Amino acid sequence: MPFSDGTVGLGLTKELIQKAKPGEVERLLARHFQKVAVGRFRQRLLIKYENKLVLIDAGSSELVGPTAGKLPLSLRAAGAPAENITDVFVTHIHPDHTGG
Fold first, then answer.
1. Count of other CB atoms within 10 angstroms of residue 71
2. Which residues lie below 8 Å from residue 27, measured CB to CB, with a gap of 6+?
3. Which strand (E) or helix (H) includes residue 96?
4. Nearest to residue 60, comparing CAs of 13, 7, 21, 2?
5. What are the phi and psi torsion angles at 68 (to 5°)?
């Protein structure tokens, strides 16, 4: 079952939209309730196996920005609070996988 750890903006607005007037991109994004033009959802996987609750990667906390670090809230909202997790399987050592 996937759980959201929030989103992270990729910071590409200035690189992608080079001829916009100052504030134009932000105004258009705000009209659509967005803060970044390009972003990536951060999801983690939780596996229930026998008497184990295994989280695949620990998420990022807010190491990758203020819109990330939502994994504890997502887990709690689904009835699987972090304190019930028995094991964490880390796929690789990057802050967005091990910072949470």
1. 24
2. none
3. helix 95-98
4. 7
5. -105, -175
Please provide the distance, in angstroms rounded to a whole number, between the alpha carbons at the two ends of the chain.
Answer: 18
Domains of the chain: residue spans and CATH: 2-98 (3.60.15.10)
Q: Both tokens of residue 84?
A: 């019930």
- Work out the average pLDDT over 51-80: 82
pLDDT for the residue 42: 61
pLDDT band of residue 4 (cuts 50, 70, 90) is low
pTM of the model: 0.60
What is the C-alpha to C-alpha distance for residues 69 and 77, in angstroms, rounded to an integer? Answer: 14
